[in-house]
Structures are given as structure tokens and as C-alpha cells.
Amino acid sequence: MKKNDLLLAAAVILAAAAVFAFQFFRQSSGRQFVEVAVDGEVFGTYDLGADQTIDIGGTNCLVIEDGAARMEWADCPDQVCVRHRAVSRDGESIICLPNQVVVSVDSTEENELDGVAQ
Ligand SMILES: [Zn+2]
Q: What is the pTM of this model?
């Protein structure tokens, strides 16, 4: 009985480890992008894995650093977007309402799904 419990526990741990490893592998292999939209139109798509500074129409300045994107500078009066924490995960976004700028994180897998849906 005790031996079976141990085996079961080992199996559960092994399964959990496998799932964790799979997710980790998927995350590290899947490329993530930052999509920038201005006034509802796509301004550009940028690789989250490549450090860069993006000037968004002179009103906002986005910085991609260490796999995360943050609003470095903006000329909007509320500065909500600048104070927003850096985004790096699927579906996260930074929105600058006054300038109608939307920065959102997207993975390649999601893009493929979108393509199928259309
Ligand atoms: Zn703003």
C-alpha cells in the first residue's frame, strides 16, 4: 500500500514536471511580438526578443528591453501609459487613451489562430 502511494506520488510529480517542461519549452520557443496600433490602425509589429526603441508617430516612445515592452515617453497629459508597468505576456497591453495608441503583446501561435479564424 505504501509502495503504491509512493509510485502514485512519483507519477504525479513526473506528469507535473512534464507539463511544466512542455510549457517552458513552448514559451521559450514561441516568438512573441508587440503590436502597436494608432487610432485603430496597425502602426507596426516588433519582435519582443530584440531590444529596440520605437518612435510612435512622435507622440509616444516605446522601449523593448529584456523581453518586455514599456512606454518610455509620451506627450499625453495623463501619463498613464508611461506609468504602466512593462508588458511581456500574451494579451497584455499598454493603452494611451489621449493619443489613441495601443501596444499589445501577441505570440506567433495566436497570430496563426487568427489567420485560421478569418
Ligand atoms: Zn499616454
A: 0.68
